[in-house]
């Protein structure tokens, strides 16, 4: 059983900013992780020369806290 996971995907466009779809998927991954008792450590978007860490930007923490209170 996995204790924790980091999700990573790419944006071939070169823009690492998360789309609305990326945020929705991250929320669903956090919800699934809670059910499976697997911690979601980060969701990272990479491009050829840049990256965006949802943990580093505070987005993952906001999603996790929202789910704790309202999920």
Task: Please provide a written account of the structure.
This protein is an alpha+beta fold. Helix content is 41%, strand content 25%. It has two helices and three strands; from the N terminus they run βαββα. Strands 1-2-3 form a three-stranded mixed sheet, with helices on one face. Helix 1 packs across helix 2. The longest helix is centred in the middle third of the chain and has 17 residues, at 20-36. The radius of gyration is 12 Å and the shape is globular. The protein starts with a strand and ends with a helix. The model has no long low-confidence stretch (mean pLDDT 92).
Q: Layout of SSEs?
A:
Blueprint: E1 4-10, H1 20-36, E2 39-46, E3 51-53, H2 59-70
Parallel strand pairs: 1-2
Antiparallel strand pairs: 2-3
Helix pairs in contact: 1-2
Which terms would index this structure?
single chain, 71 residues, alpha+beta, three-stranded mixed sheet, 3 strands, 25% strand
Instruction: Figure out the total of helices.
Output: 2
User: What percent of the residues sit in helical stretches (DSSP H or I)?
Assistant: 40-55%
Strand order of the largest sheet: 1-2-3
Order of helices and strands: EHEEH
Mean pLDDT: 92
Assembly type of the shown chains?
A: single chain
Got a strand count? 3
Brief sketch in words of this structure:
The chain has two helices and three strands, in the order E-H-E-E-H. With 71 residues, it is an alpha+beta fold.
């Amino acid at each position: 059983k996995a204790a924790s996971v980091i999700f990573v995907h790419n944006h071939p466009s070169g823009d690492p900013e998360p789309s609305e779809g990326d945020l929705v998927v991250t929320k669903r991954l956090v919800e699934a992780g809670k059910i499976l008792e697997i911690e979601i450590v980060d969701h990272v978007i990479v491009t050829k020369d840049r990256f965006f860490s949802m943990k580093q930007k505070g987005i993952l923490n906001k999603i996790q806290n929202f789910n704790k209170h309202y999920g």
